[in-house]
UniProtKB/TrEMBL annotation:
Gene name, Swiss-Prot/TrEMBL: lysA
Residues where N6-(pyridoxal phosphate)lysine is found: K62
Catalytic activity as recorded in UniProt: meso-2,6-diaminopimelate + H(+) = L-lysine + CO2
Organism of origin: Halobacillus dabanensis
Protein name: Diaminopimelate decarboxylase
PANTHER family reported for this sequence: DIAMINOPIMELATE DECARBOXYLASE, GROUP IV DECARBOXYLASE
Amino acid sequence: MNHEVNEKGQLMIGQVPASELAEQYGTPLYVYDVEKIRNKARAFVRTFEENGVKAQVAYASKAFSSVAILQVAHQEGLSLDVVSEGELHTALEAGFPVEKIHMHGNNKSIRELEMAVKNNIGCIVVDNFYEIDLLQAILREQNKTIDVLLRVTPGIEAHTHDYILTGQEDSKFGFDLTSGQAEDAFMKVQDDENIRMAGLHCHIGSQIFETSGFEMATRKLFTTLKEWRERYGYEASVLNLGGGFGIQYTQEDAPLELDQYARALIKEVKDLSSQYDYPMPEIWVEPGRAIVGEAGTTIYTVGSIKEVPEVRTYVSVDGGMTDNIRPALYQAKYEAALTEKMDEPAEKEYSIAGKCCESGDMLIWDVALPKIEHGDKLAVFSTGAYGYAMANNYNRFQKAAVVFVENGKHQLVVRRESYQEMTRLDLSYEK
Ligand code: LLP
């Protein structure tokens, strides 16, 4: 992976030495290069624009939600995917335009649906029959109308290079296409005067490196729409193909450029629309990881170094599974560097350990690095998605701070949690 390095051999992020940021804000520290975020967002938006295709690129805020990132997403013309009251609340606090917010979730609560309807959000991606009942009642009560997409399971599951075709999709999300479930749901919402049935949604997986899974899913959804037109005269205006566009965590990862994913989707939808003589629907996508993943770097300070003779050297840092649970949860792989030793050759392999009381709290196994000393600053790359978003207080570690860097300027956008904040919710027990 390419990293900016200055003439002193220092890692630079957005034209600022990473160790300077660590010095000023403390570690562990999430640092985002905002220009990278903007470039990713623009790659999607521009490709749809250049091809004259109506589209919404909805940032999946589950990847990283905070007021500042949602402000950047809005500045770049993105829409927003939220999956909870908390994510919706953050969007409202960030001043995100409500009409560009889409709500997801396989078990939306009455409160969540009421909040979404009350705030006139742009679209609800309806997931199940229970939700349809709740939504219909809330819309009648609030005397409101709302756009919905039906989430369907197209029987395609994609992960990196592999995609699996399953006849009957075994998933907690969405309506099954093959059993007629999706069609029953369609009939239910289509007849409701408070609901505008905008189209279909699917999400086939995460960290996908090819376009074929997306193309297959598009064909499945489009065929369904064609059948529904024949049977009911219905024409959809939106096809939402979800997120899952892959990013580079390590040298081994070879994702496509974002405009390549977008172009493949555009081609498939255009081809199908002309093949079936179907009005070209808007294409919506929901990238999370692809927008923020590579833009984020976590900086740690090296503490203890333990040699297990002839086996390995454990280097412990001041964070770990509390700020990045992905290695422990998914055996996710990352690359790292020493922020002040970017021009030094690797000395040997080290294993980077977190500081939680848990043997599984290892960030990286066997990574070749220059000689590591106590106090060195270690950067772990591509931590921008599902890092802060999945941070936790295990062992009562504080949630780390987040800094945005752009054009040589840096700004704190999420404060480090204090211990007072951590115990604020605790009440003493009176016997
Ligand atoms: N849309 C829907 C309906 C989704 O379920 C997801 C992710 C996305 C969009 C965004 O996917 P992305 O473009 O970020 O891959 N915690 C896991 C990832 C879980 C993703 C769940 N849904 C991780 O750390 O890899």
